[in-house]
Amino acid sequence: MSLPTQFVTIVIPVLNEAKIIEDCLNSVICQEYPKELMEILVVDGMSNDGTRDIVNRMKEKDSRIFLLDNPKKHVPSALNIGIRKARGCIIVRMDSHSVYSPHYVSTLVEKMVELDAWNVGGVLITTPANDSVKCLAIATCLSHPFGVGSSLFRIGSTSIVETDTVPFGCFKKSLFEKVGMFDEEMLRNEDEEINGRIRRAGGKIYLIPEVTMKYYPRDSLTKLFKMYYQYGLWKPLVNKKVGNAVSCRQFIPPLFVFGLVFGLILSLFSPIFMKIYLSVLLLYLLITISVGIRQAIKHSRPLLCLYIPITFFCLHLSYGIGYLWGLCNWFRYKKMKYSLDR
User: What is the distance between the alpha carbons of residues 152 and 212, in angstroms, rounded to a whole number?
Assistant: First the structure.
């Protein structure tokens, strides 16, 4: 790799992340990219849990860290604030729920130039938020094909591949003059929406599997349900703005929920439908239990046999309900305004 010469701005949106922001920033500070060519903008949605105190303390140790206010509190507005304030010609968006490998920035910048890409990103190594069986089950389901389908940035890839979206991303700042800033109407799924605009404008997006980050998902099924409900809720809006479905896998959870409800109704009137309905449910249960058994043996945690089927169901149900409700909102021409639980 040639010696980097381009100034990079790291943009990290945060809101009440006192538990994890220090680990995140420590991994950013330790990046192999030249220190004099990097600044770190933490854009905070007016946290009240001590996040700002931690960032201010770390600012004293590293002058590259800057704390910016985000009164609107949502991620797209935070990203736009950071981009507008950025001194770098390259923007690397990071997430506070992650810890990054030392070569994360340097490799993304190198590959972006080498591939003439408009956006590049790495692979999430989904890591339990703590040592509980519940968190291990959540991390397992979020990195398993049965849980997230063919989402390569979650399940991994053996080679660099062109894709529809990547987590977080690395862009040239000039990109935003071509496709516009992050859409602040998108309170979720803002990455997918802007990546849809990138592809529509003829840009290429690549997943770089050698670039990894530890991602810490939510630590309870309630939080997981709320998050994936919101992902599903905003997905129809992404499709509307982009002009087409980003991927076919998004339709499986809403079809699953639709089948649960209307399959049950039809089963009440037809023994044949009852048999089909029960057979599909049994197949679903067997698949989730088999995954649970394998993971229980792998990790020596017998309770995974119970937690993994429940977590899969929570994941699919929440996304599917959110997606169907999002469709209803657009069919009824109602603007979606929902509070976000982080």
Answer: 12
Chain segment 173-220, per-residue pLDDT in tens = 999 999 999 988 888 888 888 988 898 889 999 999 999 889 888 889
- pLDDT, residue 338, reads 43
Helix (H) or strand (E) holding 267: helix 252-267
| Residue 133 backbone dihedrals phi, psi, to 5 degrees | -60, -40
Q: 3-class SS at 284?
A: helix
Q: Which residue pairs from 336-341 have beta carbons closer than 8 angstroms and sit at least 24 positions apart in sequence?
A: 336/233, 336/234, 336/237, 338/187, 338/230, 338/233, 340/74, 340/187, 340/188, 340/230, 341/223, 341/226, 341/227
**Cβ pair 288, 313 in contact under 8 A:** yes
104-132 pLDDT per residue, tens: 999 999 999 999 999 999 998 999 989 99
pTM for the complete prediction?
0.81
| DSSP characters over 34-77 | -GGGEEEEEEES---SSHHHHHHHHHHH-TTEEEEE-TT-SHHH
